[in-house]
Amino acid sequence: MNPTEFPQRLVQALGPDTVLTAADDIAPWLSDWRGLYRGNAQAVVRPRRTEDVAQCLALCQQEGVPVVPRGGNTGMCGGATPDQGAANVVLSLDRMNQVRSIDTIANTMVAEAGCILGNLRRAADEAGRLLPLSLAAEDSCQIGGNVSTNAGGVNVVRYGMTRELVLGIEAVLPTGEIFHGLRTLRKDNTGYDLKQLLIGAEGTLGVITAVALRLFPRTGVRSVVLAAVQSPRQALQLLQLVYEQCGPRLQAYEFFTGECLELVLAHAQGVQNPFAQRYPGYVLIELADTADETALNALLESVVGDALERELCLDAAVSASLAQLQAMWKLREEISESLRAEGPHLKHDISLPIERIPDFMESAEARLRQSHGDVRPFIFGHFGDGNLHYNLSRPAGAPREWAAEHGAAVTDVVLDEVNRYGGSISAEHGIGQLKRDHFLHSKNPLELRLMRDIKRLLDPAGILNPGKLL
Ligand code: FAD
Ligand code: MLT
Ligand code: ZN
């Protein structure tokens, strides 16, 4: 088939405003948020309807053309970036962005995959409900990408991962068949729960076109404290105190080191250090409830007082207004962007049994000091659910190529330590192309065989997101 024939067939089938074929139009769709990957594609398809997605996949399946599903392109593992192959088709869900329904009796929302997460959270709030999935990328990432990566975010400690929020999925399989699983029932025990295969599959088993989500009572009352801590060990002890005294009101428990705070103060706009001095580490704790602000603030004040008395933290700044609450969150949320501004760095999105975090941190730091003493750690993350972003930046003054030269050796040390402490090499970002080799070498062989069997069953021609995950 000549190189322009297939794109023209897509144009004929789907229309010229749905299919981009000119090189300049395709170019912006070929790289990832981190700038780690750049690929190739013969066309970009931006469907508005599920039927168009089905037609596109059926055509690609016939010709064995690889398809790369793409959401908001905020993924950290290159999952939405095509490889160098010239035949790729990027399928973007960005124009399937309608909220199909919000039901405040059943507390459900049905949204198309291309809906921006932040817009869905605002739509839920306007309806008097909470969609609890929240991450710093929420005004760019799409709900289809969130489901496809089983995203975590800052509220996992109370509401779980995206998986726990999904009631139903509509998707198109690689064959072009539409999977009509968009149920909003709380209970439906009729055979295998097939939607679970699509959650976290990173676009390798189906293209998600719509999602049915659980909604929760709006927690309009929030109170935040930024506590200074001496060490991860102290952060762990503080977590236990907060958990015991605040229970279900604990909505977020985020950790970041003093280096991360310095980085944000250096790169971000409109931020300031609420403390008069520097501390080794910080914990941002959010309590949230449906009512009674006075009681919630009093609870937080008493926990903080208790923690200071027991020397479970060095200092504490409690939010006295929404503006202060948002300013404290900004110190945490700006870390990723500030790291990107700092230049190439190694991301390790890891999870550990919570009680082993302090030992892991000490052991990994000791090993890295030996093998790569000058690497600069920027460690932060969702401590409350055991997920750390163990990110390491090139040594001061090292060339940008440092990560390319030393990255593999450094990552081997970190992930070896993660395995030693019984953790996971990918807590919430998925595998994509970034971690595929480590994944294939470390995953249990039976699990890998079953995953490959499922992939072969659902995608016999292997057209969906080849080279990612498996
Ligand atoms: P994309 O990056 O477009 O795609 C991600 C993967 O999903 C790819 O494999 C793609 O092929 C697939 N995909 C996308 N849409 C579909 C679809 N409709 N059907 C099938 N497959 C699809 N992640 C967290 O989990 N927690 C965090 O706290 C967090 N914080 C972040 C902070 C920043 C500043 C940034 C930039 C990213 C952060 N991320 C975080 C990573 C990223 O936001 C999540 O992985 C997010 O879920 C990706 O959504 P997306 O729409 O951008 O997907
Ligand atoms: C976050 O929690 O901000 C991201 O998942 C971490 C990262 O950017 O490494
Ligand atoms: Zn994260």
Automatic annotation (TrEMBL):
GO molecular function, one term: FAD binding
Pfam families linked: FAD-oxidase_C, FAD_binding_4
PROSITE patterns per record: FAD_PCMH (PS51387)
Superkingdom of the organism of origin: Bacteria
Keyword annotations of the record: FAD, Flavoprotein
Span of domain FAD-binding PCMH-type: 37-218
Cofactor (UniProt): FAD
A biological-process GO annotation: respiratory electron transport chain
Family recorded in the similarity comment: Belongs to the FAD-binding oxidoreductase/transferase type 4 family.
Name assigned to this protein: Hydroxyacid dehydrogenase
